[in-house]
C-alpha cells in the first residue's frame, strides 16, 4: 500500500458521517437482504399460532399455499407450470437438478463463483458425463450455444458475485427436449422474466423476497416435471430421498415440504410476495430495481474514483451493482466507516478479491435510501481528498 493510499485510508477512518445524511435503512446486502419492518410485525403476530407448530397442519400449510399462489400470480405462470419448494437453499437444488433433471450431460455457463459451483457439482456427479463449460472472465457475459449432445442448459439469471445479468432465453437452435435451468437466486422477484423460456427457474428466499434462507423454490415446466418423473422411475439411477424432485413435487401439491421447514421463512416470504403484488407486481419491482441500480451507475459516471466493474452496460445487473474503487483509495476504509454508522454489507464478494463496493438494490431498497448512500459516499470521498 502506497504512503498516499495509507494516509487517505487513515483520513477516511477518522471521518464521521452526520446523522441526518444517513439512509433510513442502512442494509444494502446482496443476501441476506433487508427485511421490511412490516414483515417482522407480521411474524410477531403469528408467533403463538404458527411458530412451533406442525408443518403438516393447516396454519403452516396455508403459508405454503400463499407462497405458491403468490408466485403463480407474480410470474404469470402459463398452464402446466408448477411452483415447487423443498428444504435447503439453491445449493441443495443443484443436487436436486444433478439427480433429477440432468439426464446425461449439461452445458453450464460459468461467469463467477456461483455458476462455477453448479458446474463443479455436475462435474463431480458420477452418473453424469462431464458438462460442457462455456466460461467468461468475471464481469463478462458468456452466451449459451446449442449442442446436440447436451440435454440441459444451465446458467444464472444474475451472477451475485460479480453483478452480471444474463438474458433468460432458450438458446437459438435448442431442441424442445433440452431443458433450460436458470439459477435465479438473486434475480427472481427483482427482474422481469419470460418463464416460458425456462424449464426450472429456481431461487432462494433471502434476496428479493426479503426472507431467511433454508428453502429452495423452483418454477417447473411440464417438460421438467416429465423429465423428473421419468428419471425417478429409472431403477438404475440412485436418487437420495432428500434430493428427490418428484418427492418435492408431490409434497408441494399438498402445500408442504418433505421435512420441517423454517416456518419464519415461510411467513416472511408470503408477506413479501403479497406486498410486491400490491405495489404492482413484477413490472413494478423491475422498474424499481432498474431505477435504483441506475442511480448507482450514474453516480459512478460522475466520480473519477469509481468505475463499474462490468464494462458492458448491457450486462450490468439491476439488483447487484459492483463498482471498482481507484487503487489509491482503500475500499475497506470506506466500508469500515459505513459499518460504524449502520450502513452495512456493501463489501465486495470475498473471493473476487477486488478493491470494490457491491451494493444490492432489491425491491425492498427504496430510491431515497440509495440517494442517501450516494450522498454519504460523496461525503467520505470529498472529505478525504
Automatic annotation (TrEMBL):
Under the heading InterPro entries, the entry gives: Aminotrans_V_dom (IPR000192), Pser_aminoTfrase (IPR022278), Pser_aminoTfrase_mycobac (IPR006272), PyrdxlP-dep_Trfase (IPR015424), PyrdxlP-dep_Trfase_major (IPR015421), PyrdxlP-dep_Trfase_small (IPR015422)
Q: Where is this region: Disordered?
A: 1-28
| One annotated GO biological process | L-serine biosynthetic process
What broad class of enzyme is this? transferase
Cofactor(s) essential for the protein: pyridoxal 5'-phosphate
Task: Indicate, by first and last residue, each region the UniProt record lists as having compositional bias (Basic and acidic residues).
Answer: 1-11
Q: Which reaction does it catalyse?
A: 4-(phosphooxy)-L-threonine + 2-oxoglutarate = (R)-3-hydroxy-2-oxo-4-phosphooxybutanoate + L-glutamate; O-phospho-L-serine + 2-oxoglutarate = 3-phosphooxypyruvate + L-glutamate
Question: Which segments constitute the Aminotransferase class V domain?
Answer: 51-343
Under which EC number(s) is this enzyme classified? Answer: 2.6.1.52
Query: What are the recorded GO MF terms, alphabetically?
Result: alanine-glyoxylate transaminase activity; L-serine-pyruvate transaminase activity; O-phospho-L-serine:2-oxoglutarate aminotransferase activity
Q: What task does this protein carry out?
A: Catalyzes the reversible conversion of 3-phosphohydroxypyruvate to phosphoserine and of 3-hydroxy-2-oxo-4-phosphonooxybutanoate to phosphohydroxythreonine.
Per the record, the similarity remark reads: Belongs to the class-V pyridoxal-phosphate-dependent aminotransferase family. SerC subfamily.
Record-given protein name? phosphoserine transaminase
Tell me the organism.
Brachybacterium alimentarium
Q: What is the lineage of its organism?
A: Bacteria, Bacillati, Actinomycetota, Actinomycetes, Micrococcales
Amino acid at each position: 500500500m502506497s504512503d498516499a493510499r495509507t494516509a487517505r485510508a487513515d483520513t477516511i477512518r477518522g471521518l464521521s458521517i452526520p446523522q441526518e445524511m444517513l439512509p433510513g435503512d442502512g442494509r444494502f446486502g446482496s443476501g441476506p437482504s433487508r427485511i421490511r419492518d412490516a414483515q417482522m410485525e407480521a411474524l410477531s403476530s403469528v408467533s403463538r399460532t404458527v411458530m412451533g407448530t406442525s408443518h403438516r397442519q393447516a396454519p403452516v400449510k396455508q403459508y405454503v399455499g400463499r407462497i405458491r399462489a403468490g408466485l403463480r400470480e407474480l410470474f404469470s405462470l402459463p398452464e402446466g407450470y408448477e411452483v415447487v419448494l423443498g428444504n435447503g437453499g439453491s445449493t441443495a437444488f443443484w443436487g436436486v437438478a444433478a439427480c433429477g433433471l440432468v439426464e446425461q450431460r449439461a452445458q453450464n455457463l460459468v461467469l463467477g463463483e456461483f455458476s462455477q459451483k453448479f458446474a463443479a457439482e455436475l462435474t463431480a456427479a458420477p452418473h453424469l458425463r462431464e458438462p460442457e463449460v462455456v466460461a467468461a472472465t468475471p464481469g463478462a457475459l458468456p452466451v449459451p450455444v446449442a449442442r446436440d449432445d447436451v440435454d440441459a442448459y444451465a446458467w444464472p439469471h444474475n451472477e451475485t458475485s460479480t453483478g452480471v445479468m444474463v438474458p433468460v432465453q432458450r438458446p437459438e437452435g435448442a431442441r424442445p427436449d433440452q431443458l433450460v435451468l436458470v439459477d435465479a437466486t438473486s434475480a427472481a422477484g427483482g427482474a422481469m422474466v419470460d418463464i416460458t423460456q425456462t424449464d426450472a427457474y429456481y431461487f432462494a428466499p433471502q434476496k428479493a423476497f426479503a426472507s431467511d434462507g433454508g428453502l429452495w423454490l423452483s418454477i417447473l415446466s411440464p417438460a421438467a416435471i416429465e423429465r423428473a418423473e421419468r428419471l425417478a422411475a429409472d431403477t438404475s439411477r440412485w436418487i437420495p430421498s432428500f434430493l428427490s424432485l418428484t418427492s418435492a413435487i408431490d409434497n408441494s401439491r399438498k402445500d408442504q415440504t418433505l421435512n420441517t421447514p423454517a416456518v419464519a421463512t415461510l411467513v416472511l416470504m408470503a408477506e413479501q410476495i403479497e406486498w410486491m403484488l400490491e405495489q404492482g407486481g413484477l413490472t413494478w419491482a423491475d422498474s424499481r430495481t432498474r431505477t435504483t441500480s441506475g442511480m448507482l451507475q450514474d453516480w459512478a459516471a460522475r466520480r473519477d474514483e469509481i468505475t463499474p466493474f462490468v464494462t458492458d452496460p448491457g450486462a450490468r445487473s439491476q439488483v447487484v451493482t459492483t463498482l471498482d474503487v481507484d487503487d489509491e483509495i482503500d475500499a475497506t476504509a470506506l466500508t469500515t466507516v459505513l459499518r460504524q454508522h449502520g450502513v452495512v454489507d456493501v463489501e465486495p464478494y470475498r473471493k473476487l478479491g477486488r478493491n470494490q463496493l457491491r451494493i444490492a438494490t432489491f425491491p425492498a431498497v427504496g430510491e431515497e435510501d440509495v440517494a442517501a448512500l450516494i450522498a454519504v459516499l460523496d461525503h467520505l470521498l470529498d472529505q478525504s481528498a
